[in-house]
Amino acid sequence: MAASVVLVACAADAEVAAFVLDSESGALAPAGRYPVAGLREPMPAGMPLALGADGRVLYAGWRNPPYPVTCFRITADGGLEAFGTGHLAAPMAYLATDAAGRVLFAASYHGGLLAVHPLDAEGVPGAAAQTFDSLPKAHSILPDPEGQAVYAGVLGADRILRGAFTGNPGEPLAPLSVAAYSRRGAGPRHLRFAREGKLLYAVNELDGTLTAYARDGESGVLGELQTVALAAPAGGGRTLAAADLRLTPDERFLYANERAHAVIAGFRLAADGRLRPVAAMPTAPEVRSFAIDPSGRWLVAASFETGALSVWEIDGESGALRPAGGGPVGARAAWVEIAPLPV
User: Fold this and answer.
1) Taking the complete model, does pTM exceed 0.85, yes or no?
2) Is a pLDDT exceeding 80 seen at residue 39?
3) CATH classification of 93-334, choosing from 3.20.20.150, 3.30.365.10, 2.130.10.10, 3.30.830.10?
4) Are 59 and 49 in contact (CB under 8 A)?
């Protein structure tokens, strides 16, 4: 397998750090540090990243006014080249592009809204074409594999919303409806589709769980299949705080992490989409994001608290995780994306 590019948002440094990931050893070679647009001041919580549809463009959002988003091209040596700056409608916790590369979707935790930003011919987002009230604390937005709808995890409302997507940036979303209600107090945070959109998984921040849903092909409504715990109750007056989830490219394994216990849990996907535990490993404290490389062999996690990366090797047969190195990256390492190295 070819090498990959690991991209890490270092929020307090207002930079994206780039590394080339060796597909054989898991070693990380620095490929540069790149400033994002905006004033150099502490970020409130993080700096969301999103890859473009072709995996060769990176969007880095700034959560302080005037909410710029820096657009980078990924270069053949694993570095970044800035080519434009747009402005988001609010401080955004999550960014995602559609499969055609025409739209940048965004979810605002603090603003309680979802936004749709058309991309110009160069891939730079313009002013929001639409914004929607999402109810409190929208934490993610994700287009479905068919490009016909987007789904949003709304932590403060314990629900997952759905909006039909026409593919036309001029009128991209129909009114939002509820695709699923989570358990009360669960707090759905991030989402992932699997099996060509037949399944959707949600990591629930506030009760430290992971929920598998079956998606109705016609209505888009989600039916709960299973909810599993990522960790035991926190105890000592602490609350659980699940953060991220990722699938291996072959969709055999899913990983999700919980921050109060500093643990990452792995699961094997059954034929019906239910989850069977296969791995649980301690991580560095306050991991808010991790990603899996295109080969499915390496998992890279960032610690917001320590500013370090951890690399884990994924056993292709069992799904078990083996520590494989890492090192410092930067203050408030808040988001990780991995893309193929351009050829």
Assistant:
1) yes
2) no
3) 2.130.10.10
4) yes
